[in-house]
Amino acid sequence: MDILDIIRSRRNIKKFKSETVQLDLIYSFLEAAKMAPNHRMTEPWEVYFIGPDTREKLNHKTNFGNAPVLMAVLSKHGASTVEKEENALATACFVQNFNLAAWSEGIGTFWSSIGITAKNREILGVPNNYELVGVLGIGYPEIVPDPKPRTSIKNKIKHLP
Ligand SMILES: Cc1cc2nc3c(=O)[nH]c(=O)nc-3n(C[C@H](O)[C@H](O)[C@H](O)COP(=O)(O)O)c2cc1C
Questions:
Q1: 10, 12, 136, best to mutate for ligand 1 pocket (most atoms within 8 Å of CB)
Q2: pTM, two decimal places
Q3: 3-state SS record for the chain
Q4: Domains of the chain by range and CATH?
Q5: With contact defined as beta carbons under 8 Å apart, do 75 and 87 qualify?
Q6: Whose CA is nearest to atom 8 of ligand 1?
């Protein structure tokens, strides 16, 4: 698939096969993810792989679609409010790079904001100076949903004088 096909066909996956994904492969997606743009080269992202005991404590209603691998993505705050915001944006780019790299190998991701509550931050041991951008379920898709309807991009475009 070329890059546009990967972008167009990616979906947020909510039901996974039980087959696991090799950690080496996930690391290779992280290598691609880290090429994300980030202002002043802060490289604010960190990832925590979530083991079974921690996963049980998170007690997610869908168990992340039974994804065999769970990964929390954190973003460091930085020295100012602006840097905190820029870092979160950079980390979102990191996540999307990861999603697309995985999708190019037939592996899906479930982006969940579950971890953002105080309780879940505590379960995951997120330090105070980090945002929790999300928890990603990772695995081979059992179901690939149809694309969700999108507003015409023409409705989102302005040409300023
Ligand atoms: C910051 C962020 C948080 C998200 N959190 C959730 C979530 O908690 N639960 C969920 O089902 N999907 C979550 N999603 C995924 C969106 O629901 C999904 O991308 C959207 O429905 C469009 O579907 P698609 O990605 O398959 O095109 C999140 C996406 C983003 C960018």
A1: 12
A2: 0.97
A3: CCHHHHHHHCCECCCECCCCCCHHHHHHHHHHHCCCCCHHHCCCEEEEECCHHHHHHHCCCCHHHHCCEEEEEEEECCCCHHHHHHHHHHHHHHHHHHHHHHHCCCCEEEEECHHHCHHHHHHHCCCCCEEEEEEEEEECECCCCCCCCCCCHHHHCCCCC
A4: 3-145 (3.40.109.10)
A5: yes
A6: 112
**Residues in the chain with pLDDT < 70?**
none
Closest ligand 1 atom to Cα of 11: 26
Interval 14-58: pLDDT, tens: 999 999 999 999 999 999 999 999 999 999 999 999 999 999 999
* Ligand 1 atom, smallest distance to 133 CA: 1
